[in-house]
Amino acid sequence: MAFHHKSLNNGDTIYPYSNERLEYLGDAFLSVVVAEYLFQKYPFKDEGFLTKMRSKIVKRKTLNELATKIGLDIILSDYAIGAVSNAMAGNAFEAFLGAIYLDVGYARAKKFVIQKILIEHLDMEALEKVDDNYKSQLLEWSQKSNKQIDFKLVSKSKANGRDRFKMSVSIDEKLISEGEAFNKKSAEQKAAQIAIKRLSIPIEIE
């Protein structure tokens, strides 16, 4: 069930069997495990640091990369119609963790995540130095510069049967950039990244 993509349902809306419910559960489970792990690993760091680190770990890009590292994209190809996108693999990763949690319980599932995912596949020291939350960087810059910034939905369309969003960034009511992706958050990040580049905003490394 963790790898059954909705594309296999052939439009069946009466019983939309897919991994999306497990994805929801795995997302919540992973967030709790990562929060607890970071709390123990960094006993002298404040909540701001811990929140940023958790965001770096549970964000879509990281989960997509982790899914590929452990080969979930290969497994998913047998349970989906068409090419397996990075986002599909990342979603399956969350569903996979949700399934493990249901099968073996919280304690054993947490041990798996910490030992086989966080320790084995993530470089925490490197993550500490990386800040690619472009929207957050842009918002911090706008506050320091006393600029009004707005993120707006420009359009929503369909691409390969999936929703695709276009978001814009305006500063002091002037359009600066636009970004497209398969979810609003990713589209905002792309638009913010382009805005930072166009405005030559210096990025601070933590």
Key words describing this protein structure:
Double Stranded RNA Binding Domain, alpha+beta, 3-stranded antiparallel sheet, 206 residues
Which helices and strands, and how do they pair?
Elements: H1 20-41, H2 47-58, H3 60-69, H4 72-76, H5 86-104, H6 106-121, H7 124-129, H8 134-144, E1 149-159, E2 162-171, E3 174-181, H9 184-198
Antiparallel strand pairs: 1-2, 2-3
Describe this structure in words.
- With 206 residues, this protein is of the alpha+beta class.
- It has two domains: 6-129, Ribonuclease iii, N-terminal Endonuclease Domain, Chain A (Orthogonal Bundle); 134-198, Double Stranded RNA Binding Domain, CATH 3.30.160.
- The protein has helices at residues 20-41, 47-58, 60-69, 72-76, 86-104, 106-121, 124-129, 134-144, 184-198; strands spanning 149-159, 162-171, 174-181.
- It has a three-stranded antiparallel beta sheet.
- β1 and β2 (162-171) form a beta hairpin.
- α1 (20-41) packs antiparallel against α2 (47-58), α1 (20-41) packs across α6 (106-121) and α3 (60-69) packs across α5 (86-104).
- The mean pLDDT is 88.
Cα distance spanning the termini: 40 Å
- Number of helical segments? 9
- Name the CATH superfamily classification of the largest domain: Ribonuclease III domain
The assigned structural class equals: alpha+beta
Summarize the structure.
The chain has two domains: 124 residues, Ribonuclease III domain (Ribonuclease iii, N-terminal Endonuclease Domain, Chain A); 65 residues, Double Stranded RNA Binding Domain. Helices cover 56% and strands 14% of the residues.
